[in-house]
Amino acid sequence: MATQKLTEYERRRLENIKRNDEMMASLKIQSKANELSSSTKRERETKSYKIKPEKKSKAETPIVIRRSLRAQGFPPDYSPETGLRDDNSTGLLVRTPDSTIPSKPSARDLGPLSMKDAYCCTASDKVLVDTIIDISRKSEVYPSVGSVLGTDKREGDEIAESLNLGSLVLKPENTARVLPGKITNVQFFPSSFSKVIIVGDKYGNVGFWDMNKYEEGIYLYHPHPAPISGISINQFCLSKVYTSCYDGYIRLMDVEKGVFDLPFYSDHSIYSLSHKPSDLNSLFFGEGYGELVVWDERARKISLSWQLHEQRINSIDFSPENINIMATSSTDGTACIWDLRSISRNKSKALKVIKHKKSVHSAYFSPSGRSLATTSPDNKVGLVGGANFEDISMIYHDNQTSRWISSFRGIWGWDDSYIFIGNNRRGVDVISTAQRNSIMTLESTYMTAIPCRFAAQPCEVGMLAGTTAGGQVYVWSQSH
Fold first, then answer.
1. What is the distance, to the nearest Å, from the Cα of residue 16 to the centroid of all Cα atoms in its chain?
2. Do the Cβ atoms of 453 and 186 come closer than 8 Å?
3. d(CA 314, CA 329)
């Protein structure tokens, strides 16, 4: 077969190939590539036969036995969430719980706790100690200061004239972050010359804020291992403050002795705490599922106990008009009014039962004792009045809150005219008892979170404290 004649393009292509081969040969690139390939192969083979180091044995994973919250001594709705880190400049050393629930220590292991050991701030608390002792001593000199806790009451007409809702303002210096976690309780020290607030949060911290000293007046203690469920100031000695927690402990902060004593310990959760007015020795608290316990402070033992509700008691309050009349609210969906003189262990019949469609978070008597206000997540604020509490009105209010913030609890102001309660728009709704609805909302650009729990300063009309899930305290006051 005759050789096919190449085209000009094919001829040039072959010449280029031949020239490139000659150039590659002169540079010895192919031999270098072969040497590099064989070298890489030897390295891989050598590496594959290296003796691997002995692998360190992992730490043995502990066997975790799952137990219910109740078996561990915690309430069913307790949630050990990760703590918030404190990023302010007040010198607070924040204590937050671990990611796991610790085993419950015994009361013998705990015992009394010195204020020094419970203190979490870098600055000294001597100024706070001196302030509280001064408040307590002046309340003895001026009985009217201590009487605001229930032994006396001012006339409603005089208070109504001195209160101007339109003049209530929130000043920037009256806002502060006092605690690292969600605040569950708040109280004012009853003093006309000093403005001191005490708060408790979900981590078991107890904080004090001396408003006269702004941020320098913030003090933090950690006396409890679980959420604070109640704060009660001894009306006969204001330097003694009782606190309770979900873990079943009641602590007595005796400022003069510098100690958090442990007068009572229970295997059941404690959900509420209150002193009976004009009674030096009686401390009332809600324990477990619906039991009300009376603790004799002088004898240091339980004097009485009654099963009043089917589920936990969320609040305990006494009528300023008649200290034998008591109100309780419960998760069983009821608020009850009781006459302590007719309650017995075998027979506990309420004077009045106020029913809600959901749990009742609070039931508080008005300053006169003639009315009762209840709050429930069924979006109702109950208003109970009449000579025998026969008149019941249900006022609509959006009481829905997420799990991250405390439930709303409506409180009375300084007379029977208004109920103050938080809303989800970062405001405070004012409910008129005469008009049976919300008549205005306290709002401010300085309020950056939802206020949930409130307290009215008993010695200064118009001073209202609101607290949030972020540990902030906002104090409204009248502008002059």
1. 85
2. yes
3. 5
Is the distance from CB of 412 to CB of 458 less than 8 angstroms?
no
Cα-based distances in Å from 318 to 277, 279, 369: 7, 12, 8
Closest to 293 (Cα-Cα) out of 307, 309, 279: 307
Q: How many CB atoms lie within 10 A of CB 475?
A: 22
Give the whole-angstrom CA distance, residue 206 versus residue 193: 23
Q: What distances in angstroms separate CA 339 from CA 76, 277, 280, 283, 320, one per listed residue? A: 30, 14, 19, 17, 13
Judged by DSSP in three states, 356 sits in coil
Global pTM value: 0.77
Sole residue written with tokens 């050393």: 93
Return the amino acid letter for 168.
L
Distance CA 438, CA 129 (A): 40
Q: Where are the alpha helices (DSSP H) in 84-218?
A: 107-110, 115-118, 126-141, 143-147, 156-162
Q: Give the pLDDT means over successive 10-residue stretches in the chain (480 positions).
A: 69 84 77 68 44 48 45 47 36 40 53 94 94 88 42 52 88 95 96 93 97 90 96 93 96 97 94 91 94 92 94 97 96 97 83 97 97 97 95 96 93 97 97 96 96 96 96 93
| Rounded CA separation 264/261 (Å) | 9
178, 472 Cβ separation under 8 angstroms: yes
Cβ within 8 Å of residue 216, ≥6 positions away: 123
Among 180, 178, 214, which residue's Cα sits nearest to residue 195? 214
Tokens coding 93: 């050393």
Length of the chain: 480
330-341 burial code (b ≥16 CB/10 A, e <16): bbbbbbbbbebe
Tokens representing 121 are 């701030």
Q: Residue for token digits 């307290």?
A: 455
Find the radius of gyration of the CA atoms of the chain: 34
CB 465 within 8 A of CB 188: yes
Give the position of tokens 């009256």: 174
For residues 102-114, b (16+ Cβ closer than 10 Å) or e, as one string? eeeeeeeebeebe
Query: Where would I find the beta strands (DSSP E) of 340-450?
Result: 352-355, 362-365, 372-376, 380-385, 391-396, 411-412, 418-423, 427-432, 437-442
Burial profile 396-413: b = 16 or more Cβ within 10 angstroms, e = fewer: ebebebeeebbbbbbbbb
